[in-house]
Structure formats: structure tokens, C-alpha cells
UniProtKB/TrEMBL annotation:
NCBIfam families: pepN_proteo. This is Aminopeptidase N. Residues 109-192 form the Aminopeptidase N-like N-terminal domain. Its EC number is 3.4.11.2.
Length: 871
């Protein structure tokens, strides 16, 4: 039975396991409906645990076939079995072996946790707690064992059999069956266990590590799609090389395998030596993937590979420490992508995503510290806060101690914790050790929910040639917690009328960074010959909301002259945001002129950056900036009016850019950052032209759709056209669907574009699309493409005044909950900002949340999100 109020698990209640496991020997006979798992666990009492305690193994949805202790069948009265596990009442007080035979039905596993089948391929997902759906186990990350896995299957059904570690044996098993034995010498927690069995094609290559180990790297995909796996394989090799040079971390097995499957709850999983991926983050060809897809594949391949050290070699003691591996690994993949691409452009992308996903989370009912202290369902804590704010904390640490000390601290962390299940304290201790400093105050970032506010004001005294900046930190009222001050690295500087100022001194800065570790502080700059504009929070040096009152003209000075690219971009964003929230014709005109000058001067020198400057803050970001009573329709109207105005005012420039970038059509597609940047600017230009002149825009977009030689341009044109009601749009959508009828990942883009059309008719369209033959509720990518894009990417229609948008998403959550609670709960988080909506919409949202609450037997995943969201 499911429970209404799930029990809470608390960090302060952590206790070491009473038993540990040395070795796990698995013999798994794969069968579509009755897979047999014969598990032998070498257990021993943990000296740090309670002597003589019962042995409580976790289990979920298992059929126990047999159980034996040290080779002898266990009597019925020696153990108890419940839906949550199996307990041995009086286990031996010495090392012993437990042999458990269980049976599971992978075909019936719709939760996609544990062992399941995706398009006929056997695969697993064990993080956070899926291994207990394979066998009874101490399914917690601080129990680490050495695994040997024998896999056996029908050769026709599963010619490829993959496990963790290295292949040590393979052969025939008779009756059309074959086997493979995999051994992983590195002790690991159960959440890193994986197996794959199926018909798969592969691409592979070799890599030699800095230690001279020869590795075979392979990417496995659906047969026939091998030609779409090359980019992912290349990203594997680049990741391996980068982790050696950037962090001194070599790979540690003879093989590294990546497998793409089409049904996957999340993005990908770092199982030891056998990463399993959502195929969306592996498969790419110019015809089917966009520049954004290529970049995401590169980042996620890197992320999972980097986990081999930050996650696998050093794992987490308990799930409260999730940011220890996720925040750190996101930081590492961001650094990798920045090295592979344009660092400033990538930084802007990181911050946009942080603001779009993490800031609202941190300001709403689902807010939690980067290291939570309590959870009901851990799978609901794979959040933007743990991942992305977690990464920002690591970045701040590097800023505070400097790159050399940071690298030394990382080396120390890996050395001290290799083979261990560690904590955030262990991580910080490594840096404290190498710097000789104390990071106790800095550690507050892990405990404090909410986005801090940083308020800055400046004063200039011409006579004294002196500029004084006053900085103050505070926690926002809603949701913030007061407490001792945070340690906030604030990168800043002063900008003169025509560029950097010379002869300025400021002893309070080190490498351009001021460390605000008090509630407030004053910084004095001397030798300031002219009235400067302060450029604060350069490179977004801390995850805070900056309040700094500048005029549009001052901001335009930053756009033109700041040495920090991030703040140049930010300045334009700030002006645009104010114009969305508080429209004004004269100021819009002045903004357009400043953008025009910027485009003339440098658009073609750095097209990717220019495209970002032209991209207005999203409706979500504008909503986030409204104190309360959000009316999504008003925000939408204001933003579209601003777009239209800029499109008209900048028209001649945009045409020139379009023409200058047109030769791109004649060169073969390459996904590299500079080619992608040129495409993004050209597509941004088309989009703005269309905003100002929809008729021309529709015609040009339709032409572009016809002539495009790659998915990036085709999809951009379709997205532009999708915003212009009319026959051209409908024809284009129909043709696109016909052209890509056999391409699920491309159809996802088609679903997503339509789900985001900001028109009342979209709801009808969603209903229609849910009946489309290519739509299915059993595939998470399809659900996310249609329902997720609507709920998270269409603020006006999701939050329709009549509540029908909320209702549609709620019905999907309800329908999905019994088959795939993880994805259902994730969809439900779209309601996270409901309290900030204006009253009548908020009332509708609450009504719908109450409707969900009345559904009997909700999963723990959904019940947890619901309880926290309703508050
Ligand atoms: N560790 C995976 C990552 O790379 C995420 C897996 C989460 N899966 C889950 N069911 N909670 O980020
Ligand atoms: Zn991860």
C-alpha cells in the first residue's frame, strides 16, 4: 500500500550501516517476463554499526524464489519479507554469505527504475534506489562492494551483453543462449550497477591514458543509427583527454561503454564503465540534431564521464550529499564546455539556465538547501538547486581561493577520499587543508535556501577623484532564512565613458574580486578621474540577485565598453527587462539605437555573443522579476511589443547581417561553436525581422524551411513561423511531421514547438496531439516534449485564466502517476510558482492541486511534490 504522508528521512539521523558487503556475485538470466537474479552477497558486521542488529535489506517489487545462508536454505522463521524489503532476524556475528534468488518482470517495469526494457533492449537505472528492484540489498551509497556479473540471454534477442568493469569471459550457454561475465574491480555502491542486453550497433575507438592504459571506448545505439553516434564517441575521447589535463584524472578500466536507450527518466547515468543515456543525448546528425543538441550531447557525455572520479571513485555517503557529486560534476562539465567553446558565451548560457530553472525553484515552495536536510523521496531532489546552484558554489570556491589552490584542493580531495563515500565536509576539508584557511563561513552556502540579494550603490566625488561603493547582502523575505552572512565573491570594476579607467587603485580588491563576508561593506577606489559606471558581479561571480540602480545610458555604456563580456550582455538584458516590466517608447527607441551601434561594431566579430545580446529575457524571467501578482498575459504582450519594436527599428541592420551570414548555406555543416554562433545570429535576425514584420517573416521563414541544409536552421525557421498564425504555419507543421515521421527525436521537437505557441488555440492542439499516433505516455521524452514544453515553456497558456491549462497538465500527471511516478512528479513541479500568480489564476491552480490531492493512491513521488507545492 502507498502511504498518504510519506515518512521523512533526515540527515541528522544518519547512522552507518550495521552490515557491509565485500563482494557481490550475480548470475542474471535475462528473460522478457521472468528474469532470474541469483545473487551471492559476502556480508560482514560493520564494526561501526550495532552488533547483533537485524539485517534489513531493501527490496521493491521483487519475487523471492529462494534464500540461503552460508549455503543452507534459510528456515521460514529466520527472516521476514515485506513490500519494502527482507529482514534477517538474527544474522551471524561474523562474515557470512547470503544467496538470494529473485525474479522480476522487466517488460512490465514502466517506472524505468531497476531492470526494464526499452524498445526490446534490457537496461537498468539504479540511481537513486533502483537496485532494490533487482535483488534484496543494502541499497545505500555507503555500502560499497566489488561486483562480478554473469549475464545470460537468448543470443538472437540479446547478442550484446554489457556489464560494469571489464569483460572476463564469454561463450555459449546452449539452447540458443550465450553468456558474458563482467568484473568490476572498483568497489562501488549499488546505484552504480548496470547491465545492458540487446541488439545494438556500435562505433568504437581506442584511447591511451596518461598512465599508458589502452582503452576501448564504444558507443552503442539502435542498429542502423551508428552514423549518428560519432559525435558522442568523439566527445568521450575529448572528455578523457580533458580530465587528464585539467584535473589529472585518468580512466581506470580497459573499456568505457556508452549505451543509448529511447526510454529514460532523466538525461543519463554514470554507471561504472557502462554509462546509459537517453538517446536524445547521444544521437546526432546534421539532418536530425540542432547545434543545441550537439552542445548538450558534448556536455552530458562529459558530465557522465567526469563522474568516474567525482561520483564513482569518490562517491556520496548518503543522498543528502548529492551535490557533492552533482554540483561538482556540473562545474566540471561546464569548464569542459567552456574550454571546447567560447567561455563567455557558455557562461551566459549557464546563467540563463540557472535563472530560468533554479531561481524560481529557490523562490517557491519547492525551495531547499543545496544540501537538503530532509526528504521524503530522494528522486525529487535531482533539482536545479542541487545541480546548478551546487556548481555555482564550487565556482565561488575557486574564485575565492584562486585556480592553483583550487586544483591543489581537488587533488587533495581525490587523494583523501578515493574509494570512499564522502560528505560535503570532506570536500571542504581538502581545500581548508591546502589553503590553511577555514571554510566554515563559506559552508553556509550549502545550508541556506533562497537566492541572496546583493544591493550595491555608488557615490563619486570628483574633487577627490574618489568612488565609493557600498555593498549589502540580505536574504529575500519570501523563503529566505536569516542567519549569519554568506561569503560572497563579488567581481567588480569601474568603467569610464570610453572604456577601462587607468590609474585607479582599490586595495580592497584581489584580482578584481571583493569578498563580501559581512552584512555590508564599503569599497573605496582612488584615482578615478571621471565619473565611472560600476560593473558589479562580473562573470556572475555569485548566484545572487544584484540590485544596482543604473540608468539606461549607464547600462549602455557597460554594453559598449565593459571589459567583462558577461556584464556587457547583462546590461542589455537589464534594459530590456525594465522595458518589458515598464514599457516606454522613448527609452525603447534609445535602446534600439544602442543595440544598432553594438551590432554595427561587433556582431560579425562574435556572432554567438551578438545573438545572446539580441535575445530578450524570457517571459519566465520577467515573471520572476515581478514582486507578486504575476499576469502572464501582460508580460507576454509587453515582451512581444518590445520584440516587434526592436525588429522594426533594427530592420536594415538585421537584413545586412542576414545577407552577410547567408554564405553559410553553401558550406558543409559543422557543429563547432563558431559555425553554430553564426547560425544563431542569422536565426536571431530572422526571428526579430519576423517580430517586426510578420508577413515578411512568415514568407522568409517558409523559404528558410525549404532551403535549410540542417536541422538547426530548419527548426529555427519553424519556431519563427510557429509564432505567426496562419496557413503557412499549419502547412509547414504538416510537412515537417511527414518528413520526419520515422524520427521520434525530431518529432519531439515538433511536439515541443507546437506546445509553446502562446495562443488560446494551443490547448486544443495539445489535446489533438495527445491523440497523434507518434505520441505515447510510456515514453518520457514524448511526454516531456508535449506536456513538459507546455507546462514549463508556455506561461500564458499553462496559466490560462480559465484554469484549463493547469487542468490538462494535472490530468497528465494523474494518468502517468501509476505507471511512471518519477516523470509524473517532475511534470507536477510546473506548479511551483503558482502562489506568485495574480489571485484568480492562483485560485485556479490551487483548485487543480486539490483535485490531484483527492486522487487515491498517489505515488510517494507525486504526493511529496504535491504536499510541498500546496504548502
Ligand atoms: N546521476 C545522474 C546524473 O548524471 C542522474 C540520475 C538520476 N536518476 C534518478 N532516477 N534520480 O546526473
Ligand atoms: Zn550527474
Amino acid at each position: 500500500m502507498r502511504t498518504e504522508t510519506p515518512p521523512l528521512i533526515r540527515l541528522e539521523e544518519y547512522r552507518p550501516s550495521d552490515y557491509l558487503i565485500d563482494r557481490v556475485d550475480l548470475d542474471i538470466r535475462l528473460d522478457p517476463h521472468a528474469t532470474r537474479i541469483d545473487a551471492t552477497l559476502a556480508l560482514y558486521p560493520n564494526p561501526a554499526g550495532e552488533a547483533g542488529a537485524p539485517l534489513n535489506l531493501d527490496g521493491d517489487d521483487l519475487r523471492l524464489v529462494s534464500i540461503a545462508l552460508d549455503g543452507a536454505p534459510l528456515a521460514q522463521d529466520g527472516y521476514t519479507v515485506t513490500p519494502a524489503g527482507l529482514s534477517l532476524i538474527a544474522p551471524p556475528r561474523r562474515p557470512f554469505t547470503l544467496r538470494l534468488v529473485t525474479e522480476v518482470d522487466p517488460t512490465a517495469n514502466t517506472k524505468l527504475m531497476g531492470l526494464y526494457r526499452s524498445s526490446g533492449v534490457y537496461c537498468t537505472q539504479c540511481e537513486a534506489d533502483g537496485f532494490r528492484r533487482i535483488t534484496y540489498f543494502l541499497d545505500r551509497p555507503d555500502v560499497m562492494a566489488v561486483y562480478t556479473t554473469r549475464l545470460e540471454a537468448d543470443r538472437d534477442q540479446a547478442p550484446v551483453l554489457l556489464g560494469n568493469g571489464n569483460l572476463i569471459e564469454a561463450g555459449e550457454a546452449g539452447a540458443g543462449r550465450h553468456f558474458a561475465v563482467w568484473h568490476d574491480p572498483h568497489p562501488k555502491p549499488a546505484y552504480l550497477f548496470a547491465l545492458v542486453g540487446g541488439r545494438l550497433g556500435k562505433v568504437e575507438t581506442r584511447f591511451t591514458t596518461m598512465e599508458g592504459r589502452a582503452i576501448t571506448c564504444a558507443v552503442y545505439v539502435e542498429p542502423g543509427k551508428e552514423d549518428r553516434a560519432g559525435y558522442a564517441l568523439d566527445a568521450v575521447i575529448r572528455s578523457m583527454a580533458w580530465d587528464e589535463t585539467a584535473f589529472g584524472r585518468p580512466y581506470d578500466l580497459d573499456v568505457f561503454n556508452v549505451v543509448a536507450v529511447s526510454d529514460f527518466n532523466m538525461g543519463a547515468m554514470e554507471n561504472k564503465g557502462l554509462n546509459i543515456f537517453n538517446d536524445k543525448y547521444v544521437l546526432a546528425s546534421p539532418e536530425t540534431a540542432t547545434d543545441g543538441d550537439y552542445a548538450a550531447i558534448e556536455a552530458i557525455i562529459a558530465h557522465e564521464y567526469f563522474h568516474n572520479w567525482s561520483g564513482n571513485r569518490v562517491t556520496c555517503r548518503d543522498w543528502f550529499q548529492l551535490c557533492l557529486k552533482e554540483g561538482l560534476t556540473v562545474f566540471r562539465d561546464q569548464e569542459f564546455s567552456s574550454d571546447m567553446r567560447s567561455r563567455p558565451v557558455h557562461r551566459i548560457a549557464e546563467v540563463r539556465s540557472l535563472r530560468a530553472r533554479q531561481f524560481p525553484e529557490d523562490a517557491g515552495p519547492l525551495r531547499h538547501p543545496v544540501r537538503p536536510r530532509v526528504y521524503a523521496e530522494i528522486n525529487n531532489f535531482y533539482t536545479a538547486t542541487v545541480y546548478d546552484k551546487g556548481a555555482e558554489i564550487v565556482r565561488m570556491l575557486r574564485t575565492l581561493i584562486g585556480p592553483q589552490a583550487f586544483r591543489a584542493g581537488m587533488d587533495r580531495y581525490f587523494a583523501d577520499n578515493d574509494g570512499r563515500a564522502a560528505t560535503v565536509e570532506d570536500f571542504l576539508a581538502a581545500f581548508a587543508a591546502v589553503t590553511g584557511g577555514d571554510l566554515d563561513a563559506f559552508a553556509r552556502w550549502y545550508e541556506r535556501p533562497g537566492t541572496p540579494r546583493l544591493t550595491v550603490s555608488g557615490a563619486y566625488e570628483p574633487g577627490a577623484a574618489r568612488c565609493t561603493l557600498r555593498l549589502a547582502q540580505s536574504q529575500p523575505g519570501a523563503g529566505g532564512q536569516d542567519g549569519p552572512p554568506l561569503v560572497i565573491p563579488v567581481a567588480l570594476g569601474l568603467v569610464g565613458a570610453s572604456g577601462p579607467l587607468t590609474g585607479v587603485t582599490c586595495p580592497a580588491l584581489r584580482d578584481g574580486v571583493f569578498v563580501l563576508d559581512r552584512p555590508e561593506a564599503e569599497i573605496i577606489f582612488d584615482g578615478v578621474a571621471e565619473e565611472p559606471v560600476p560593473s558589479v558581479l562580473r562573470d556572475f561571480s555569485a548566484p545572487v540577485r544584484l540590485e544596482l540602480a543604473l540608468t539606461d545610458a549607464q547600462r549602455m555604456r557597460l554594453l559598449a565598453h565593459d571589459s567583462d563580456p558577461f556584464n556587457r550582455w547583462q546590461a542589455a538584458q537589464d534594459v530590456a527587462l525594465r522595458l518589458i516590466l515598464d514599457p516606454d517608447a522613448d527609452r525603447t527607441e534609445a535602446f534600439a539605437q544602442a543595440l544598432g551601434r553594438f551590432l554595427d561594431a561587433e556582431a560579425l566579430a562574435d556572432p554567438a555573443f551578438a545573438a545572446l545580446v539580441l535575445a530578450l529575457p524570457s517571459e519566465g524571467e520577467a515573471a520572476d522579476a515581478v514582486p507578486s501578482g504575476v499576469d502572464p498575459d501582460a508580460i507576454h504582450r509587453a515582451r512581444f511589443a518590445l520584440r516587434a519594436h526592436l525588429g522594426t527599428a533594427l530592420r536594415p541592420r538585421l537584413e545586412r547581417l542576414d545577407a552577410a551570414l547567408a554564405p553559410l548555406d553553401n558550406v558543409p555543416y559543422s557543429p563547432d561553436a563558431s559555425a553554430a554562433g553564426r547560425r544563431s545570429l542569422r536565426n536571431a535576425a530572422l526571428d526579430l525581422i519576423a517580430a517586426g514584420d510578420p508577413e515578411t517573416g512568415a514568407r522568409r521563414a517558409a523559404e528558410r524551411l525549404g532551403s535549410a541544409s540542417n536541422m538547426t536552421d530548419r527548426l529555427a525557421a519553424l519556431a519563427t513561423l510557429a509564432l505567426i498564425p496562419g496557413d503557412a504555419r499549419e502547412t509547414a507543421l504538416t510537412e515537417f511531421a511527414e518528413r520526419y515521421a520515422g524520427e521520434p527525436l525530431v518529432l519531439d521537437k515538433w511536439f515541443a514547438i507546437q506546445a509553446q505557441i502562446p495562443e488560446p488555440g494551443t490547448l486544443e492542439r495539445i489535446v489533438r496531439l495527445q491523440g497523434h499516433p507518434a505520441f505515447t505516455m510510456t515514453n518520457p521524452n514524448r511526454v516531456r516534449a508535449l506536456i513538459g514544453s507546455f507546462a514549463f515553456g508556455n506561461p500564458t497558456q499553462f496559466a490560462r485564466a480559465d484554469g484549463a491549462g493547469f487542468a490538462r497538465v494535472a490530468e497528465t500527471v494523474a494518468a502517468l502517476d501509476s505507471t511512471n511516478p518519477q516523470v509524473a512528479a517532475r511534470m507536477l513541479t510546473a506548479f511551483g510558482s503558482w502562489r506568485r500568480l495574480e489571485n484568480s489564476r492562483a485560485a485556479k491552480a490551487l483548485e487543480i492541486l486539490n483535485w490531484i490531492k483527492a486522487i487515491p493512491g498517489l505515488s510517494r513521488d507525486t504526493a511529496d511534490i504535491l504536499a510541498r507545492t500546496r504548502g
